[in-house]
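Q: Sequence in, structure out?
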Amino acid sequence: MRASLIILTLVSLAACSGDLTLPNDGGGGPDGGGPPLPDQVRVVDGDGQRARTGEVLNDPLVVQVVDSGAAPVVGTTVEFSFAGDPAGAVLEPSVTTTDSSGLASVEVRVGLESGEQEIVARVTGTDLSASFTVTATDGRHGHGGDEDH
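A: Exactly. Output:
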């Protein structure tokens, strides 16, 4: 009887020694596992603002990073940069990570010359990006920044 029990235990263990396969939960990694992968960068807020030259825009520029199912992607590094190099223009922070809603934002000080300035938000290491256009004014037509009326 004891030999039968040992043989039954060994047969059971041998039958269960294969790899364990779990169902695919639709995750975003290349093989369907792992964290979701960024698929798109969307402009959420801040586009089209105006401020006096050298002043900070009233509202931050905000993007959302989503996966192929339009779900937010958390913890993605986003780099903000000016197209060109407008003198006196500042982005703070220029590199940030997305929050629990997939959002990343930046404060903008427009350059010292009046005119349109383009800011690009790009997911680090990819070609995924979105752009904003803001306007630096000479002070007579501005609607942002710290100007007094």
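Strands lie at 40-45, 50-52, 61-66, 77-82, 90-92, 95-97, 103-109, 115-123, 129-137.
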